[in-house]
Amino acid sequence: LSEEDCKALLSLHADVKSYQADEIILKAGVPTTHCAIITSGFVSRVKQLANGARQIVAFHVAGDAVDLQSILFTVTDHILVANNATTLMWVSHEDLLDLHDRYPTLGKALWLDTLADASIFREWTVNVGQRRARERIAHLFLEMGTRFDAIGQLKDDTYELPLSQSRLAEALGLSLVHMNKSLQTLRKEGCLVMRGRSVTLKDRRKLIALSGFDPGYLYLDSDRTKPLTTSKAVFTV
Amino acid sequence: LSEEDCKALLSLHADVKSYQADEIILKAGVPTTHCAIITSGFVSRVKQLANGARQIVAFHVAGDAVDLQSILFTVTDHILVANNATTLMWVSHEDLLDLHDRYPTLGKALWLDTLADASIFREWTVNVGQRRARERIAHLFLEMGTRFDAIGQLKDDTYELPLSQSRLAEALGLSLVHMNKSLQTLRKEGCLVMRGRSVTLKDRRKLIALSGFDPGYLYLDSDRTKPLTTSKAVFTV
DNA sequence: CGATTTGTTGACTAATATCAAACTGTGTGG
DNA sequence: CCACACAGTTTGATATTAGTCAACAAATCG
Predict the structure, then answer these.
(1) Which of A122, A145, B71, B179 could form a disulfide with B169 if both were Cys (CB 3.0 to 4.6 A apart)?
(2) Binary contact (A55, B224; C-beta < 8 A)
(3) pLDDT for position A117
């Protein structure tokens, strides 16, 4: 979407770091200085409650920016966890904000990324607030299917979701047992199958009917986002 | 937070418009061209499901930017409703994006606003996903208390929340009946009272203990956000 | 191979939704 | 001023959904 802004972006100093499955990438309450892009892997953002309960508030796949959401905050309020063997490219907030100021188009691209994230947050609130267990699961699995498809990691309606049922329960606001039983129901109904970490969408139509999934909120389609090219006003600077 | 950026912001052409209680400000699926700042009043953002269920995904009070979230999208995916007699100042996306490009500090201020919103979205997911009815209600009422306090609309732990119990239920993912009964329980426990549209936080300590409310995610404290002043790089342009 | 995590099951309990009816209060028109 | 409609709140009974507990099976890992 950008032009020679890309050059500027690529010229940034980036630290590449690898993480193992279940490794905590970032603790809560830490000063924020860098954010990352996922080269490969899968990352969860987790909010922990005083009573020990955990809510996963976002999943991130390869290509996603992680923690861009806190670029203008001083401290993190949630944890970042690698669910996979994951590689991140870290960039300092300072450098990124500097780019934002000098390349408005790039700045808007960063902004857009956080807005698309926020749209997903809103849909998750809807999912957890308005749908019951089976519908929630169907919706999440369709969302992840769509997102993996967008990065070429969907084959034959099958993708790798590196999450235990217990983690899925934390994302959907369900208990582990209920998560398990609802998954089995969906399996028996021929809607979807999860074997190990491999998810197969057996019957998209049924899943969509069940959950009311509509991928618009993911903003993967360029029709749904505005062109970011800088207005003339800036070219005259 | 900004300096003579303010002048630029204030120089924008703004359309002032008033709305009645329950008036729909913006329908879903409409092309986005403008966003607004609330001069006075109270606004909800509502997502509607195919089955008719509704989830309120955000509340906005005086001073909040409304729909800045969709400034880089072409169409809205949710409804805006005035819950009150509300006055909005509409600014065109074009003008705003132009300012973003020319005044990086201002641009970051806009970005920050959307990021703080997003942080609230995340906490709402936690609220709906992890807390039960009474706790959810306590959390929401504390949040709104804190936000009204920040704009000087909290007096004696009392504020005006122009929402019926049915609307509150839509925000919290509860049925109307359960909302009503849980509210009564909180009332009997001496935690809070809602008479008409007036909410009084009777026992903050109890409410906080119950819900685990921590206002950090609201980012009302300037300690928690970064200074936005433009880096030197831009001054040299 | 044992040890540990993850998945599965059944019995039971608690939370929440649904339904239907009644009971406010408030404003309107006669 | 009363009768009425209307929206919001409250109530009780009941059904459904989801959570908890405890045990066990299956898969995974060193």
Answers:
(1) B179
(2) no
(3) 98
